[in-house]
């Protein structure tokens, strides 16, 4: 057996065992690496100010932890207090509203009457309270999973920021690509991920502010529910409905039909349609123009927009980072193939 074949077998075997060893952490490592790429400009700024890569990585990781943990911690603490202090009369009012709606639905929904009769048997104060408790438990378990994954991402993020330069230089030496090609790949991926990271934050804050301001005029905690809506907006298709639908039902149950209709129409028309569908691509475009220099690679904002949606749909919460990264990587590889094809064609032409 030739020595190079033996080395290749050893490499494949070690790669397989490395995958088995680190499989539970691969998603966190990938997300941390992509976040490190996205925020490389912040890391570079702290390095210049502090003259220390270690402390720069430490502060960058702390800021990311604040971004991840503080809003969620505030949300969980406030939500727990609200649910514990909620009057049981609220559940009774919701039950009465649902029963009246199912017993006498509007004329345009009268064809659903045979189905609503069966649903009536399951509607009660106890069932609603049980659903709320179950829903709270699901939020708690999801939040615990989110906190665990976020903690791992931040730990890996610190090491990615601290040792990222060494890893990138090592990969450049190992990968069979020219310096120009690896530089192009790293530059385009870094450019796209920076735009994605900041546009996601700005868009979530924008939608959260829109919802929080509207709900505060109705007497609710605008800060709490604005944060909740910002997180919910990251969930594809049903994200906003997870927030405004319970408000609509509650307002209907208390007899405030005008408030219920307003919050539903406002959330659908202003936030879901105008802000999320039309303004979101403009936010991405503006960040794309302001964040990147003229000589940096720019990806079309609509491609980034659909890549975020596709990533969220396929991979869940972290898909908003993975989707654009995969798309940017694919398009860059296509550019490299195009460049190599042109180079081969130019060599093949007779002189």
From TrEMBL:
Chief localisation class: membrane
TM segment ranges: 20-42, 54-77, 151-171, 192-217, 223-249, 261-283, 303-333
UniProt KW Transmembrane keyword: yes
Entry's family note: Belongs to the autoinducer-2 exporter (AI-2E) (TC 2.A.86) family.
Keywords: Membrane, Transmembrane, Transmembrane helix
Membrane disposition: Multi-pass membrane protein
Protein name, entry field: AI-2E family transporter
Highest taxon, organism lineage: Bacteria
Pfam families registered for this protein in UniProt: AI-2E_transport (PF01594)
Compartments, record wording: Membrane
A GO cellular component entry from the record: membrane
């Amino acid at each position: 057996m030739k020595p190079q074949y033996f080395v290749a077998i050893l490499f494949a075997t070690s790669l397989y065992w490395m995958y088995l060893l680190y499989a539970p952490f691969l998603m966190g490592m990938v997300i941390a690496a992509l976040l490190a790429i996205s925020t490389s400009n912040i890391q570079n700024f702290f390095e210049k100010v502090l003259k220390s890569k270690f402390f720069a990585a430490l502060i960058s990781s702390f800021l990311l932890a604040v971004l991840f943990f503080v809003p969620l911690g505030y949300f969980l603490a406030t939500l727990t207090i609200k649910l514990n202090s909620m009057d049981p009369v609220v559940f009774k009012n919701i039950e009465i509203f649902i029963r009246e709606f199912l017993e006498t639905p509007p004329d345009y929904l009268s064809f659903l009457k045979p189905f609503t009769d069966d649903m009536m048997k399951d509607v009660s104060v106890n069932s609603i309270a049980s659903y709320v408790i179950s829903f709270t438990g699901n939020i708690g378990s999801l939040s615990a999973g989110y906190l665990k994954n976020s903690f791992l991402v931040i730990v890996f993020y610190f090491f990615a920021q601290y040792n990222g330069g060494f890893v990138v230089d090592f990969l450049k030496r190992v990968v069979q690509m020219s310096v120009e090609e690896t530089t192009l790949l790293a530059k385009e991926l870094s450019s796209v991920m920076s735009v994605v990271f900041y546009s996601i934050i700005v868009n979530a804050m924008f939608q959260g502010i829109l919802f929080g301001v509207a709900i505060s005029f109705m007497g609710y905690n605008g800060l709490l529910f604005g944060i909740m809506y910002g997180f919910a907006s990251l969930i594809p298709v049903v994200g906003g409905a997870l927030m405004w639908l319970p408000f609509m039902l509650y307002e209907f149950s208390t007899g405030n039909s005008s408030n219920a209709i307003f919050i539903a129409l406002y959330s659908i028309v202003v936030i879901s349609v105008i802000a999320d569908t039309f303004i979101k691509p403009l936010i991405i475009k503006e960040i794309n123009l302001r964040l990147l220099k003229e000589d940096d690679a720019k990806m079309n904002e609509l491609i980034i927009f659909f890549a975020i949606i596709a990533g969220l749909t396929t991979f869940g919460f972290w898909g908003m980072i993975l989707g654009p990264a995969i798309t940017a990587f694919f398009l860059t590889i296509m550019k490299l193939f195009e460049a190599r094809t042109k180079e081969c064609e130019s060599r093949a032409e007779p002189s």
